[in-house]
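Operator note (shift B, R.M.): manual run for BTB domain-containing protein requested after the automated queue skipped it. Running by hand, logging everything below so the morning shift can see what happened. Input copied straight from the record, untouched. If output looks odd, do not overwrite the archive copy; leave it for review.
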Amino acid sequence: MSYETFTTTMHLRWLDTILPKRICSWEFADSEWIMILNFDKFTDDPRSTLNLQIVRNENCLSWNRKSSVMIRVKKLIRDQTTYTSSHKIIELQKPFESTELRFSKILKRSEIVEENDEYPVEITLIMEKFENSLEKVPKFDFKESSGSPKSDVILNIDGVKIYANKTLLAIHSKVFDSMFFSEFVEKNQTEIILEDDDPDDFMELLKLIYPSAGSTIINDSNVDGIYKLADKYFMTHVMFQCEHFMETSKDYSVRDWLVAEKYDVPELMKKSKPTFVRQLAESFDF
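Run finished. Output pasted below as returned.
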């Protein structure tokens, strides 16, 4: 387990023991940290409470949803150095979610005696670092050969060479399974020409089945091309993803009805038919 550390120094004055004060804020571990020092006013010798407010950033990857945080305080008061440490567990589930850590008994008011004096207090945060496994998984560039078994076939589409893996294609496609692992001529070929396909659509399709190729989100601009290829190569799981996108779309189009009719998708045909009929009627002048 690895750790990430951050150290900052603040200078306390006697006035800081009277009024709660926002000490500072900084970026640490993909999050914003706001430090506020409060003194308990209801005891004879008030002790400080250090509040740390943490706001998790949108793309936070350097620590897990649940991580361990330790705060270590080094005080230099009247030429005497003392240390205080405390340990907390922080847990944030969503981006921009915030939480607050409270560390008590950091400093006594009586330790700060001179009104105009300043005392350095060094705050060190030590956070358990999350080893993001996604960063360790290689990303695939389908236009470059990796020189390893994971790219063992070239798919030549309209002159564009796409480097792919036979086994992975076969897992998702009955057509490629038969092509590569049955008695077809393509079985022993290292380069195969695919006719009537769009290379960009095919790479979008591959991103859906490769675990680390970079996520593809099915949308209005790519669903037609992906669905056409998935149907051609009998990739039922990808077809299901495309159908789910079209069936759950709030705005059906004539395109959806035509796709449903062509590929025999009853549920999509049912949902998109009213839009198709309405737009068809609007195209005529009565």
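Quick read of the result: Residues 130-137 have pLDDT under 50 and may be disordered. Residues 266-282 form the longest helix (17 residues).
Leaving this for review. - R.M.
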